[in-house]
Please model this.
Amino acid sequence: MERFAIVGFGCAGCHALKAIRGAGCAAAVDVYSDTGLPPYNPMLTTYYVKGTLPYEGMFPFGTMETLLGELDFTWYDQCAVSQIDAAARTVRLSDGRERAYDKILLSSGARAFVPPVGDLPQSRIFAMRNVEDAVRLKEALASGGIRRMLVVGASMVGIKLVELLLAQGVEVVFSDLAEHIFPTAAFEETSRRIEGRLRERGVELRFGVKTTHAAQRDGRAEVCFSDGAAVTVDAVAMCIGTRAAVGYVSPEEILIDRGIVVDEHMRTSAVGIFAAGDCCQGRDLSTGGTRIIGLWASAVLQGETAGKNMAGLDASYPGNILHNITHFMGMDFVSFGDKSLPGERRVFQDRDGRYIEATVADGRVNCVNLLDLYKNSGAVKDHMLRGLYPHDAPPDPQERAVLLKSGLPRELIDLLGGRGQ
Ligand SMILES: Cc1cc2nc3c(=O)[nH]c(=O)nc-3n(C[C@H](O)[C@H](O)[C@H](O)COP(=O)(O)OP(=O)(O)OC[C@H]3O[C@@H](n4cnc5c(N)ncnc54)[C@H](O)[C@@H]3O)c2cc1C
Model:
């Protein structure tokens, strides 16, 4: 009987296993996980800390008992894979054991990048990626020891933290090296509008500055910035990004860039080795190259594609574009596409707080920002994908009608669908 292995049991790993069994494949499957937990959804962690979701709510796939019963696999819990030998087709585990496989999926996700913050002890520094991070922050907030917090990283994760801290009555200083919020996704004017609203809600913004040093002072933390200013807080949250968790992979055996490079079948450069989710660099429709697009929907599709191919089917991952759909503090920021791609910058709507700006090139949209226009954002993305890949997905007249009805300007809809002038 064939033996499969899955490294990391998150969204991508779990979807791959479901696809393997869904394809009727009876291979023995060993699942290696460095946690003792069922697969969780990292994006639900902030809702748990905020108190709007119970602990169990972070585990959308159910308990391990249910999964083991449904999917028939061997679970190696709290057992990190420390090395892969692609030639010998073996994995080495953190406890020293070695196990063989015929095909393997690398779905180890990403880890929060948390560098030291000056001389502050770890007890004052928080991150937000996994269940342990969420439990730790929730307990610290419940203890009443955090009255003022510095959130470093004007990212989608950073803003969700800011939101939950404000809801708990914690004062927030929000800082980033970049000049504006959401630097990789938002155009400057979009950022300015969001920043104005944050200031109105009492958030102290310190953008365009670096934290230079930090130390404990009188039982609190003093953090200094490159502009000479300093803030006194009780704790610091680092939300400055993630790194693909690929330390166990040898770049001499498997092609790695920022993540593990895969083709449309989610195959890596090594025979019998697949990768999916935040640890891999899959097809990017905006550029035609590969890139890590660390989103839940990508991890679902990539995991499913890898699982089907491991089971012997022929499945392809269609690719994705960068996108962010973030709801926070009563507002919605939506961005589709790559902000760094060239094009003419145009404002398509600016009324009642709603704002649409896009980069347009060659009769199509390369990147669009929508502020407070959440409704139909799925149809906007779909239409944009059809514009980028008319052969894979021809324009859909019904979708166009939906967008017209929603009040989106006709010219923008044409450009999104690749039919602009
Ligand atoms: C706060 C937050 C908010 C987010 N919001 C959104 C959002 O709004 N929309 C969206 O689309 N996406 C969002 N995301 C991203 C989304 O959660 C991820 O893209 C998705 O969870 C990736 O799934 P994955 O299976 O690749 O990785 P993970 O969920 O990280 O799972 C990987 C698993 O592998 C384990 N592992 C790592 N190394 C090893 C090893 N060597 N051996 C064994 N096990 C290992 C890890 O511990 C983990 O359990 C958010 C993420 C965060 C943190």
